[in-house]
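User: Modeling request: complex.
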Amino acid sequence: MIEINNISKWYGKFQVLTHCTSKVDKGEVVVVCGPSGSGKSTLIKCVNGLEPFQAGEIIVDGISVGAKQTDLPKLRARIGMVFQNFELFPHLSIMENLTLAQIKVLGRSKEEATAKGMKLLERVGLAEQAPKFPGQLSGGQQQRVAIARALAMDPIAMLFDEPTSALDPEMINEVLDVMVELAKEGMTMMVVTHEMGFARKVAHRVIFMDKGEIVEDAAKEDFFGKPRSERAAHFLSKILNH
Amino acid sequence: MNLSIFLEQIPDGDGTWLQSLMSGLGWTLATAFFAWIIAFSVGSAVGVARTTDRRWLVFLGNGYVELFRNVPLLVQFFIWYFVVPGLFLPVKAWVTTLDPTQHQFVTAVVCLGLFTSARIAEQVRSGIQSLPRGQRSAGYALGLSQRQTYRYVLLPMAYRIIIPPLTSELMNLIKNTAVAYSIGLVELFFRTREMGEMTFRYFEAFAAATLVYVVIAMSANRIMALIERRTAVPGYIMGAK
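Assistant: Request completed. Predicted assembly structure:
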């Protein structure tokens, strides 16, 4: 579904990604972790072309992301993305946030888009918030709306860029619950997160990144059981021992 | 102060001084209205261009803003009125078909419109750049094109944020119409000065003009404040209060 082949990226002379290679199969949940500044957010933003890369190739559902002739908006419409800071559109109601791209990109009618939006809001437990505005919701609620907004496009895969990092601790679980449910339904997911509990519960594979490189790319059991690299072991010991 | 002066007939014209001032007010409002349309549309386009990732658009936009911001308004009026028709023959050909008042009016509208547009472009740019970077990414990630992302995501918030400086710009534009007096447009200031010179009632004339300018500028201010309240986003905190 998502193939990342030998990606390298530079900001000026500074190399942020070095020969990154990995893949996410259909229905697979892959967690990407690593210390801050390791390039994990940059990597996931390369997958839907939000960040350009200078070398290598990313293939999503048979389409090359970096190729000049690729219709990026069309490709992005098929990949859902959830951001660290939610990025709901503040001037639109919750329902309008869910229907905007359905109507403008997919060409659905307003009724159809609203019905779809309502179904997804119910699913994330926020149906009664439909007429409100993002600023009137808590962080956890906003992030659940953001997930619903991405799902409204019927994506073939979902990208999560640190979806719980900006949340207060008591709100993290309500968002993770939605993600766990999504994973159990067989959604293809690539998740940048520090939530190792989530990784243990639903991930198939875990990728560990450090200094722009993929240091470890292993099945979940192997990663938590016996990390092969010293850097991954060190990272795990730091975030798991408290 | 003798208010009856306003009802006296103008020696060499028809109507009273009050009518003369009102006719000047009409030109002032018409100039400000059409100049604002130009300023807002051109300013928005240039402001947006300066926030895109096309380097040549940013370069052109920056040049445009520098050009119009760095030359005094009075000088710009003279350039548009006396120099531009001489430089561009089609403009000259067209201008000669107009009567002098029309020529002055068109010049004033274009000159004030473009002068103000450069300032609005700067505000639109800063409004867009004040939004979190993730807003643009979120628009793109949903499959919106660049144009749609500006239209539905970035500009609605950017305009809301820049309503206060836009208000100042509108008020400045209204007051700057007085400079059109320099090329002979018979707007409010022109009529006021004329009245002062012909009657020596400078105090009454300028008291009236001052009052009228204050009323228009304040009305513009109130209208913008109303728009600001009407478009306020529920739950969105705009700055510290």
